[in-house]
Amino acid sequence: MTDEAADEILFERRGPLGLITLNRPKALNALSLGMIRAMQAQLEAWAADPAVTRVAVRGAGGRAFCAGGDIRRIYECARAGNERDLYAIWQGEYGLVATVARFPKPYVALIDGIVMGGGVGISVHGPYRVASERYSFAMPEVGIGFFPDVGTTHLLPRLPGRTGTYLALTGARIGPGDALAVGLATHHAQAADFDAILDGLAAGRAIDGVLAGLAAAPPPAGPLVRERGLIDDCFSGESVTDILGRLDVAASAHASFAAETAALLRTRSPTSLCIAREQMRRGPGLSLPDAILTEYRLVTRVMEGHDFFEGVRAVLVDKDNAPDWRPASLDAVDPAWIAAAFGPADRPEPSFA
Question: In what residue span(s) does the Enoyl-CoA hydratase/isomerase domain sit (predicted)?
Answer without folding.
Answer: 18-342
